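Take one protein record:
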Amino acid sequence: MEFVDLQHAEPIEAWRANRANAWARPTSGICHGFVQANLVMLPQDDAFDFMRFAQRNPKPCPILEVTDAGDPEPKLTAPGADLRTDLPKYSVYREGALVEERSDVVDLWTDDMVAFLFGCSFSFEHLLLDAGLPIRHIDQGINGPVYLSNRECVPAGQFRGKLVVSMRPMPPDRVAEAVTITHAHPEVHGGPVHIGSPEKLGIDNVDEPDWGERVRMEPGDVPVFWACGVTPQQAAIEAKTELMITHSTGHMFVTGMRIDSE
């Protein structure tokens, strides 16, 4: 089965496409109107401190669901899905180092694994587009830029690190509208954490993102930064956990939750 266009697909179609390895691209812009999620899988021994880290840093880590140990089905947010197969691409880390990327992690899943789903800002892009605001990285067909900032997160146990942010350029006369729309959705990071001055976040050059790709800004565009779900991943990397499985950058999990304008 081939899925050429998932823009207006139902989540189950995206899950099936991923299980069939028929979709290997970033998920920005697919399944219009549904919440997308960042994924982190950890052994149960690491899960409690990791959950405390998320609770202490809700802006970059808005928890949508935490699965029972050994259960890969997100029963609350996407019943019927399988988090071992239903994402386009996974990253596998051991002792904090990326060791491989793969299309499923069935053989790595064990009975003590716990999966965390965090709201992703790809979700509110649907609302921005519906309001007529530009999403430059979608228009340019690239994986949007993400940066490691200079802001420290609140630590928990072995988990600590700096806030990671995503950036979307906005025309100056539309920035306030983007703030209003996104602020209403804390479940997917809410409003921006900073507007206009990358250097205040410790970002020397917006054309050199730490993850994703450089986005071409239009004349007059203002860089707008939102908290990013790469933050908890980065904290686990710095903690050098024995094993961590995540979505690969930009390749999110599509939940069955809808996101609607207020």
Remarks:
- The chain has a mean pLDDT of 94.
